[in-house]
Amino acid sequence: MNPEAGLAWFRIALFITLSAGGLILLNPPGTAEFIISVATFIIGLAFVAVIAILVRHASR
Q: What DSSP designation does 31 have?
């Protein structure tokens, strides 16, 4: 994997995760916005994990 591409995707994933995390704190629990924010946060964490695994695997 190209190092610049990996860094760009990691930054995008981190932005998604941090934005969703902030929205979780602002939205009241039990609303549709809260549920979407939690789902987006989980997807963002999975995205960060996949990118970290791919970068680590490519560096070997």
A: S
What is the mean pLDDT, run by run of 10 residues, along the chain of 60 residues? 84 96 96 97 96 84
Domain tally, the chain: 1
pLDDT in the model for residue 1 = 65
Predicted local distance difference test score (pLDDT) of residue 47 = 96
| Residue 57 dihedral angles phi and psi, to the nearest 5° | -70, -35
The boundaries of the domain holding residue 11 are 3-58
Q: Distance (Å, rounded) from C-alpha 6 to C-alpha 54?
A: 8
Question: How far from 31 is each of 9, 34, 38, 40, 50, CA to CA, in Å?
Answer: 30, 5, 11, 14, 29
SS3 20: helix
Question: Residue 30: in which H helix or E strand, if any?
Answer: none
